Amino acid sequence: xxxxxxxxxxxxxxxxxxxxxxxxxxxxxxxxxxxxxxxxxxxxxxxxxxxxxxxxxxxxxxxxxxxxxxxxxxxxxxxxxxxxxxxxxxxxxxxxxx
Amino acid sequence: xxxxxxxxxxxxxxxxxxxxxxxxxxxxxxxxxxxxxxxxxxxxxxxxxxxxxxxxxxxxxxxxxxxxxxxxxxxxxxxxxxxxxxxxxxxxxxxxxxxxxxxxxxxxxxxxxxxxxxxxxxxxxxxxxxxxxxxxxxxxxxxxxxxxxxxxxxxxxxxxxxxxxxxxxxxxxxxxxxxxxxxxxxxxxxxxxxxxxxxxxxxxxxxxxxxxxxxxxxxxxxxxxxxxxxxxxxxxxxxxxxxxxxxxxxxxxxxxxxxxxxxxxxxxxxxxxxxxxxxxxxxxxxxxxxxxxxxxxxxxxxxxxxxxxxxxxxxxxxxxxxxxxxxxxxxxxxxxxxxxxxxxxxxxxxxxxxxxxxx
Lengths: 98, 359
Fold this sequence. Notes:
The complex is a heterodimer of chains A (98) and B (359). Chain A is of the alpha+beta class and 98 residues long. Chain A has four helices and four strands; from the N terminus they run H-H-H-H-E-E-E-E. Chain A has a domain at 29-96. In chain A, strands 1-2-3-4 form a four-stranded antiparallel β-sheet, covered by helices on one side. In chain A, strand 1 (63-68) and strand 2 (73-78) form a beta hairpin. In chain A, helix 3 packs antiparallel against helix 4. The radius of gyration of chain A is 18 Å and the shape is elongated. By secondary structure, chain B is an alpha+beta fold. In chain B, the strands form three sheets. In chain B, strands 2-1-12-11-10-9-8 form a seven-stranded antiparallel β-sheet, with helices on one face. A three-stranded antiparallel β-sheet of chain B has the order 3-5-4. In chain B, strand 11 and strand 12 (331-337) form a beta hairpin. The two termini of chain B are 38 Å apart.
């Protein structure tokens, strides 16, 4: 049994190393997705705030949602990461900040 | 003599009447009604639950017949004025923009993509035609929600790739020789968007979709988002009203001609609508042409949407976005949606539209 658990640990660590780039980036998805798609829902498609909150809802939780209406900047936190997206212009719409 | 003249005038007026085009506004014909229209609506506009987000959730349905609107309906909050996210319809829009550049002699289909996008130096065999057929051979994973860890698309749009999506794509290894295998890839579309920057020059690039395509078609409210390097997100992020997207459909339905101007060369449209030779039946939901989806039978398999005529083609996007064109029926159909499950079926909608428009 211990040998099996050890083997499992080795396999998991190997997989983790192999997928390290994807695993490191994974927690960014939810806050980046929510910030960008909310920004476009609200300021490009010009839907109301309540609809847009529902529109971007995913199975992963977010926290610390702010929408600064004067600069049209949305900042969202989730899984320990934070991202913001900003509306740029009528033609360019929104962009995720670098 | 008088009789001959009046016949001549009648013929003239018939030819003038025969072709309707949108000007600043779309011509509106008498709207279709009856039980078949109700059957269409019961499918497309079923009661909507924004808490569960289950089922078919149509935001907009617009039917244009012979250049005139014959049906139009929206579901809140979408209206006729909403520039709706088109997701991957953007890819076919980019192909249409590229068609104008092609007509200006800025590139050939067998030009290496490297010629216009030097970051592809690891992949010199990829041509612009290969990218348009989604056949770069780059090892790309297109899943959105179901494999977020491995998804190239999610990484491109939201994490490792979002600053420069074309560069992110070009850094992928290949899994097949260029042009030898079909694999749908948002990365291929964004490589084309980056190549366009060199074709038209960086000064003209930011306005090029407007000057080349949107303005000639009378499209006034298009939005096209770009990444931090200024490259259009051709894979995903163009926004148009349903009425404006239908203008692109009418352009394609009429062979690339807008009024009396051949905006897209005929051989370009022919390439768009030619099934990609190495595609195998069932590899995707429809048959890929040159950045458009075709309803053509392949390898003896039935056409993807059997209730629609075989000349039907479409631009398709995530969550149920669709622009369908049926030249033989003189129909252009825009369907925007917010489908979060797989219950919406192209063939079912097209079948019901055809029943609703046929007298």
